[in-house]
């Protein structure tokens, strides 16, 4: 899978991808992430990519030309399955969207800054708008990093134990069950006996029950 990202702060993103689990995904050739600097696509002086908004009001808006130059130039090489704009007014990102996007071949992520991007880019180039939560970040980069991480770890072969992504919280709309490792007893706190029984079908049953209990307690909204 290929994910291209357009950003005005590419350095911020590069350091993230250089150290995450996605490094392994990249090394294995399962995921290619390319970051493009929007300022490389502007014809305005001093790398300008934003300007005051028409109609007045505080805050700069990212201009249409640099964005369209960048998008169209990248589209010459790649027919993207989705062109995604990260924005607080987009559809809320969740595991289901991560699953769906992980099945695509190529994505282009656009990171906004300031007051946002010229609406005409959204109207004519963006195929999907995604928010990572109900709060406003200073730019879309952290959102893009969240998407790449959540999607990247779902690609077959990225995680060592492939089943572990399927057992994550939110798959099936349930939170993951509690997990334990050595030692079997610490300060008198014991690991649930069932996990030491070796009876795999009983263990799976117990884990499923625990998932349901945990979801009822912490995130009842997921069960609605
Ligand atoms: N850009 C600014 N805030 C954002 C958010 N909550 N989600 C995605 N992109 C953003």
Automatic annotation (TrEMBL):
Coiled coil: none annotated. It catalyses: guanosine(37) in tRNA + S-adenosyl-L-methionine = N(1)-methylguanosine(37) in tRNA + S-adenosyl-L-homocysteine + H(+). Pfam families: tRNA_m1G_MT. Keywords: Cytoplasm, Methyltransferase, S-adenosyl-L-methionine, Transferase, tRNA processing. It comes from the Bacteria. GO terms for molecular function: tRNA (guanine(37)-N1)-methyltransferase activity. The keyword S-adenosyl-L-methionine applies. One of its GO terms (biological process) is tRNA N1-guanine methylation. It is found in: Cytoplasm. The keyword 4Fe-4S does not apply. Residues 1-223 form the tRNA methyltransferase TRMD/TRM10-type domain. Its EC number is 2.1.1.228. One of its GO terms (cellular component) is cytosol. S-adenosyl-L-methionine binds at residues 112, 132-137. InterPro entries: Alpha/beta_knot_MTases, tRNA_m1G_MeTrfase_C_sf, tRNA_m1G_MeTrfase_TrmD, tRNA_m1G_MTases_N, tRNA_MeTrfase_TRMD/TRM10. Homodimer. Belongs to the RNA methyltransferase TrmD family. Specifically methylates guanosine-37 in various tRNAs. This is tRNA (guanine-N(1)-)-methyltransferase. It comes from Ginsengibacter hankyongi.
